[in-house]
Amino acid sequence: MVKTAYIGLLLTSYLFSQEFVVQPYLQSPTWSTMYILWETDSNSDSRVEWGTWPTLGEVTTGTAINTDGNNQLHTVLLTELHTSRRYYYRVVTGSLTSEIYDFIMPADPMDEASFKIVAMSDMQKDNSNPNKFEEIVHDGIITYLAENYFGDLPFDLQMILVPGDLVDNGWSYSQWANTFFAPAHPLFAHVPLYPVLGNHESDTDYYFNYFHLPETGTPGYEEHWWFTDYSNLRVVGLDSNPGYQLDIQLSWLDEVLDDACYRTNIDFVFAQLHHPYKSELWLAGETDYTGEVISRMEAFTTECGKPSIHFFGHTHGYSRGQSRDHEHLWVNVATAGGNIDSWGEYAQADYPEFTVSQDEWGFVMVEVEAGDDPGFHMKRISRGNEHEFRDNELRDEIHIRLHNEMPDTPVGIYPVGSGIDPDMLILEANNFQDSDDDEIMAAHFRLYENCDTASTPTYDEFINRENWYYYENTQESIELTSLSISSLLNGNSVYCWQVRYRDSSLGWSTWSEPLTFQTSESQYTDNLLLNPGAENGTDYWMVHEGYLESLEAYECDGVEPHSGEYYFSVGGICNSAGYSEASQSIDVIEYADCINEGLTQAHFGGYLSNWGGSDHPEMQMIFLDESHNEIESSPILDTYNSSWTFLSNSQLMPEETAYIQILLMGTRYAGNDNDSYFDDLFVKIFRDESCMNSQIIGDLNQDEILNILDIIIMVNIILEGDDYQLQADMNEDGFVNILDIVTLVDIILEM
Q1: Are residues 651 and 718 in the same domain?
Q2: pLDDT for 1
Q3: CA distance 294 to 299
Q4: CA-to-CA distance for 199 and 738, rounded, in angstroms?
Q5: Domain end residue (candidates: 663, 691, 719)
Q6: What is the CA radius of gyration of the chain?
């Protein structure tokens, strides 16, 4: 009888035992309320015992909904709470009771309290590193807070932002509990969580059940987009997923930003959404809709004088950049667990907006400062990657102030006046000066032809102090107070230029007063390439492999030319080959004396680009002897940028060079088209005048006399269809024909 009773007791205990599916977590506090949610495997009893001391004393009940099977998700709203006060709580469902946790209520906005935020995203489980999110929470965030602040979690951290991809598969019920909530329970039980939808959530009911977000969005879309205010900050949550890239969301955002503009207690606006507008590490994840969001944030920042950020994820790595003309930061806060998008793995591009990109796990800390001198200090804390471990290493930071003193207006130094070399020009301005001791972050140079500053600049260059791309700072040797311009200006022409400086708090100086200069006759030859910008189709270019196309803007879904009406596609988009080559040979025999004395330098380059950062345009200069045998070659100019990128290189021509071959190459790495684009190409030669005095145009037999013998040689060049010779092109029209004979005859008759 005793045995039977014991078995029955065990069976009853087993049948009625309860467990937490999801431990308690916090949602959507206001100045007087806080939501507490948790999930159990049975029982709809939803109670929170709470108070201002660990002894608790108060009880509030709530509601429960069924989530899966018999599992119950509980929601309790605590009310009549007080700002800035610490509260203790535990949750009770039937016989199941949690530990006692605590939280701190938001401060009254009038108190102007400073606070801290963690932003992280894309923590969906990576099977190769299944415990990475747990590591980032425990060894990363919690350890970092304890070592750098007070070791009091709700006091050290007030808000957690997650711009999407909380789980790998939003339809998998178990992933929500096991891979998202469980690893982060020590954070979520003390600090309110504010997520937005990523693509991996798939817009499932699980997401909307688990989160009780501010009901401040458009009716019918409340938890797709929302905003909340905390002290001097407005946080905006947006939905960038297909199906919700709607004008109604943008209109709502306009209203929210307009409201934040006139509210004196709001100093900054942080938005979060999942998809990037631009992403250096993974171009395939970009969406134009985020660009619409950014343009509104930029306008708000400039019109209202309040700096802003948009946090995003989707690309599994960290990036930080800033809008050129606005106090607005672009910040990718991934990855907090998902598989890293490593350098070289996908189509990538070096965008001018971004200063830092890193293929690493980690999180972002933001210290928001209120009071008389509001600002925010953003830090990227790294956990490294599979190749290099980093133990909460500070890898990037920026400090933005609301009341920033702009840098002093720079003063141009050189060039000014006349006789300026148009081919090797260096713009120089005075040293950076800033009254509140900020460092220089960027410089912006503009150059205008004929000093028409109301027109589009002939040259417009924006340079950041640093540009970390593919593990290297490409700006390491850059001096921001000077800028070299090579082979882009005309001789005997008038130009003026201006510069402005940016400080490390994103403030721009005013533009310097325009400085006027006049170029001299160039010491370089004119462009020796014929048809350098595809304006004459593919004339003068020889195709060795694949296709060469001369394309108008957007022909065959292409791009706009850099200039003019046409550009080259090497590889083709109307027709396409995986790899293509085309070349043009330039006769430089007339410069033989200078070349053989080691006094002649060849300068080549142009604008290169592709479609989406995948395909690979390359350009090279090859030096050939009289038999067209290769003597030497230059370094290859290449880019993966999807915007027109100017590249150039100079090299001393080796002895015995008779021809320069310009080789264009295009390689397809993605898609059906070979999007390897070229425009405005050039080859110029710099000559030491000491070896050029004897060279007379039209002197084809090089006897230093123009006579009937030169006419005979020119006739033979035309009749035999020999390669183009610059020395025979008397009228410099790019052709050798009867007009050149007439010109030469006239010169001889006048002698």
Answers
A1: no
A2: 45
A3: 9
A4: 68
A5: 691
A6: 33
Residues 214 and 313 in one domain: yes
CB 483 within 8 A of CB 463: yes
The residue to which tokens 């109670």 are assigned: 47
The answer to the question of residue 129 being in a domain is: yes
Q: Is the pLDDT of residue 633 over 50?
A: yes
In whole angstroms, what is the distance from residue 543 CA to residue 570 CA? 9
- Which domain CATH number covers 497? 2.60.40.10
Tell me how far apart the alpha carbons of residues 432 and 424 are, in angstroms, rounded to a whole number.
24
The structure's pTM equals 0.80
> 5: Cβ–Cβ under 8 A, 6 or more apart, which residues?
none
Please give the backbone phi and psi of residue 176, each rounded to the nearest 5 degrees, phi first: -60, -45
Of 401, 436, 453, the position where a domain reaches its end is 401
Under DSSP, is residue 289 helix (H, G, I), strand (E, B) or coil?
helix
Shared domain for 366 and 495, answered yes or no, is no
Alpha carbons 473 and 466: distance in angstroms, whole number: 6
Choose the weakest-confidence range: 264-268, 291-295, 474-478: 474-478
Query: Same domain, yes or no, for 269 and 137?
Result: yes
Proportion of the chain in helix, strand, coil states, percent, rounded to 5: 20, 35, 45
> What is the CB-side half-sphere exposure of residue 550 using CA atoms within 13 A?
17
Claim to verify: residue 268 and residue 174 sit in the same structural domain: yes
Whether residue 268 sits in one domain with residue 119: yes
Residue 231 lies in a domain: yes
Give the CATH number, domain containing residue 286. 3.60.21.10
If DSSP states are collapsed to H, E and C, what string results for 318-368? EEEEECCCCCEEEEEECCCCCCCCCCCCCCCCCCCCEEEEECCEEEEEEEE
Query: With 80 as the cut, is the pLDDT of residue 704 above it?
Result: no
Place of tokens 């005095």: 693
Nearest-5° angle of CA 175, CA 177, CA 180? Answer: 75
Please tell me which residue, 683 or 719, carries the higher pLDDT value. Answer: 683
Q: How many domains does the chain have?
A: 4
CA 568/CA 547 separation, integer angstroms: 10
- Structural contact between residues 234 and 268, judged by C-beta atoms closer than 8 angstroms: yes
Q: What is the CATH number of the domain that holds 662?
A: 2.60.120.260
Over pLDDT 90: what percentage of the chain? 72
Residue with tokens 């209203």: 255
Q: Which residues contact 11 (CB under 8 A, 6 or more apart)?
A: none
Cα gap 160→190, rounded to integer Å:
10
Position 619 in a domain: yes
CA distances in angstroms from 713 to 444, 719, 720, 727, 740, listed in the order given = 52, 10, 10, 11, 12
Look at residue 630 and tell me whether its pLDDT is greater than 90. yes
The pLDDT of residue 643 is above 90: no
Q: Encoding tokens for residue 719?
A: 């009749």
| Cα(10)–Cα(6) distance, integer angstroms | 6
The three-state secondary structure class of 260 is helix
Strands (E) in 553-669, as ranges, are 566-570, 579-587, 600-609, 616-624, 630-633, 637-638, 645-652, 659-667
Identify the helix (H) or strand (E) that includes residue 248. helix 247-262
Q: Same structural domain for residues 226 and 339?
A: yes
Whether residue 225 is contained in a domain is answered as: yes
The answer on 318 and 191 residing in a single domain is yes
Q: Which helix (H) or strand (E) holds 268?
A: strand 268-272
Kindly report, residue by residue over 42-78, the tens digit of the pLDDT: 999 999 999 999 999 999 999 999 999 999 999 999 9
At 312-341, the pLDDT tens digits run 999 999 999 999 999 999 999 999 999 999
Torsion of the alpha carbons at 680, 681, 687 and 689, rounded to the nearest 10: -20
Instruction: Residue 207: give the domain boundaries.
Output: 106-401
716-529-582-725 Cα dihedral, nearest 10 degrees: 10
- Average pLDDT value for the chain: 91
